[in-house]
Amino acid sequence: MAGAAFGDGGDGKRAHLYEYRITGYFIFACVVAALGGSLFGYDLGVSGGVTSMDDFLEEFFPEVYRRKQANLKETDYCKYDNQILTLFTSSLYFAALVSTFAASHVTRNKGRRASILVGSVSFFMGGIVNAFAKNIAMLIIGRVLLGFGIGFGNQAVPLYLSEMAPAKIRGAVNQLFQLATCLGILIANFINYGTNKIHPWGWRLSLGLATVPATFMFVGGLFLPETPNSLVEQGKLEEGRRVLEKVRGTKNVDAEFADLVDASTAAQAIKHPFRNLLKRKNRPQLIIGALGIPAFQQLTGNNSILFYAPVIFQSLGFGSGAALYSSTITSGALVVATLISMALVDKFGRRAFFLEASAEMIICNVAVAVTLALEFGQGVVLPKGIGVFLVIVIFIFVLAYGRSWGPLGWLVPSELFPLETRSAGQSMVVCVNMIFTALIAQCFLASLCHLRYGIFLLFAGLIVIMATFIFFLLPETKQVPIEEIHFLFENHWFWKRYVCSDDDEKPGQEL
Question: Which terms are listed as keywords in the entry (predicted)?
């Protein structure tokens, strides 16, 4: 196995002295913070459904509406190929990648809670603007505001959950973010299914209900405690220890608090955390956490299915209601998969989930590609049995993604960064994730039109590369205290040449 084993011995390793109990205070904090994932999930679910609704298309995209009506029951790879329509989806993610840098400053200097509150307000405003949109410009402005909210929420929430969680259950706790995301997608699909029958303003209700999770997140956020890590980083040592004692349910937190103080001391010497990410000693976190995993999470192709599930199923010849129903089935698979991952990821580890699920996803992509190559053609009515088979294969694909690259794409990067670069590193994670999310959202329908079934073979090939990356470069991080992750890289067959090098810059020296 590529990852080195972790032990408690050695200088600076105090994990064996950590104590904790699961308290009501801890559960409240994590559940409220995880609501940030519901913002991301609701938008993922609602946008694809709205872009397939006839009333929405007729008002804003009449050309697409006419093309859809002309081939309502027939297969057509290019039925929804319209760059302005895809910009409606992707503009949110372009906004999110820009806002995450502002979020990094707020998260580092004002705390994780402050970013959560800012994100909820921006998302609420975006939902209002979209619900009352009169033209495409208003739609895009609303999407940008939603994007700002997601940029702040996705930057802060995974950090918050990882810092609040005890090491032994950090995987399950962090995946509350993914669970909230998946529930948001599922609820959005049910809402789309219902509002599709409300003419002509049902789509406005779908978009406007984004204000509901944003309101819950804001009100809950007012009562959230700041993380002990953030309080110590801000120099509030007494308050940090007090919060640590409350979330751990014990007064015996000397060892863990000492680790937090040591990490904070190192963090205070770093004036430019983004530059510090480029240092040789931080190469593993940069390559794996900030660049590799967040990019690969999108290149699996799963979010293309989540964005455009109703659109894809309608392109395959399903009716409007059947398409929304089929996409609800796939989003339900995500919820089931996340619960499986939460239950087992701290037992079997991150690497096992990444690798096993990748094999399933490759097989599913190839199966879809072969089926479409044999059975799919423009103007062809897809046989019912083939349609059911495609829904089942996509369900299995989403089930595999939902217990691996989906939740672990947020969990693993949030574990890897030391405190001095944690907020900057998480900003890079969100930025890279949103760049690839936006590109996939903008390009998928055009790629489906031009590459046809080959798009699924492309995703299968990319997953082979991703699995290889994980096998050779990611050490196992399960149950390792977050402030001691760096010891894994010092013992890793490949990364130790970087993190243990004597020719690194001197402490505090800038690039």
Answer: Membrane, Sugar transport, Symport, Transmembrane, Transmembrane helix, Transport
Residue 290 and residue 430 in contact, taking contact as beta carbons nearer than 8 Å: no
Closest CA to 154 of 247, 44, 39: 39
Collapsed DSSP state (helix, strand, coil) of residue 52: coil
Instruction: Decide: 308 and 445 in contact? Cβ < 8 Å.
Output: yes
Angle formed at CA 310 by CA 308 and CA 315, multiple of 5 degrees: 90
Amino acid identity of residue 98, one-letter, is V
199-213 confidence digits (pLDDT tens): 999 999 999 999 999
Please state the φ and ψ torsions of residue 502, each to the nearest 5 degrees.
-85, -10
Q: Give the pLDDT of residue 5.
A: 35
340-371: per-residue pLDDT in tens? Answer: 999 999 989 999 999 999 999 999 999 988 98
What span, in angstroms and rounded, lies between the C-alpha atoms of 402 and 404? 6
Q: Phi and psi at residue 330, in whole multiples of 5°?
A: -65, -40
| Biggest CA pair distance of the chain | 71
Distance between CA atoms of residues 106 and 122, nearest Å: 14
In this model, does residue 471 exceed pLDDT 90?
A: yes
Residues 183, 38 contacting (CB under 8 angstroms):
yes
- pLDDT for residue 53: 87
Overall residue count recorded for the chain in this entry = 511
The predicted pLDDT at position 69 comes to 75
Count CB-CB contacts under 10 A for residue 473.
Answer: 17
Distance CA 76, CA 358 (A): 29
**Structure-token match 């895009």, residue found:** 140
- pLDDT band at 90; cut points 50, 70, 90: confident
Across 85-98, average pLDDT: 84
Give the type of residue at 210.
A
Question: In 196-268, where does DSSP find H-type helix?
Answer: 202-208, 211-222, 228-233, 237-248, 254-268
For residue 387, which of 372, 397, 365 has the smallest C-alpha distance? 372
Is-cis flag, bond preceding 200, omega within 30? yes
Cα–Cα distance between 454 and 74 in angstroms, integer?
A: 20
